[in-house]
Amino acid sequence: MLNLLWLQSGGCGGCSMSLLNAEGPDLYTLLDAAGINLLWHPSLSEQSSDEVINLLESIVAGDQPLDLLCIEGSMMTGPQGTGRFHMLGGTGKPMIEWIRDLAEQSRYTLAVGSCAAYGGITAAGSNFTDATGVQFDGELAGGLLGDEYRSSAGYRVVNIAGCPTHPDWVTETLMSIALDEHSEAQLDSLGRPRMYADQLVHHGCSRNEYYEYKASAEAPGERGCMMENMGCLGTQAHADCNIRDWNGYGSCTSGGYACINCTAPEFEEPGHSFCKTPKIAGIPVGLPTDMPKAWFVALASLSKAATPERLKQNAVSEKLIYPPTIHKRKG
Question: Is the pTM of this model over 0.85?
């Protein structure tokens, strides 16, 4: 039986809300099947006040074994490194000190969501709270625990990045650990589980035919590809959002929203509107992953020249106008 403790720091709690949508099986069934005992979760557990404080103290003292430490929300280290912007109620001790102490005892430490992984939305703007990630500060290794940190089982922090995370990204990571299949090789250079980070949001996108012909949407609600004008970063974002359904069906792009690359460090500071593609001389600044600029320009020109009229018209419409032509077989 593996013991799991879930703490929430600087964030909105959205990753916990997403986790509750786990399906096939539901969260509690999965934890039971994996042999995971939930010691405490701030939204799912009944214990509070002295009971929780006693639990945390027993873990830090080494009396209560801790296998899985899940941290949601950013590490608020301000002011001036004291962490006193976020005190754990009833303890007189900053949350970051609790996390440091608990991380020393935990066999595996997991940062759930981009806030915990890299600082995320909480670190945006002037970052008055000095928010950072558990083992990353934006795209730079370090964060609260430092680059040299390793859990008691010898592993770096697992960054289940996303804003929010897909429930399956969390549950499958927990299952991998429970089955003793976890290894450093399963994480990419930013600490994300490769089972979803080795994919691109572009893979499986329902708008891929429009992308291939560079038939682009020009306004919200239109059916065309959103990369050229609407700020979509699906060709660069590492996630399987269009392969793995959300809430039984759908994703950001299938719902008409541009991908903002929320699994990446510093996605919260794009330097421009999330819904507008920056361009230089008419060429999008954010090109697809692994594609040289000259190739993209050449391919885009050829694709636009070959775009079927059906796609040109449908791309700038809010509903399907022209279906594909039915071809009769000859002979």
Answer: yes
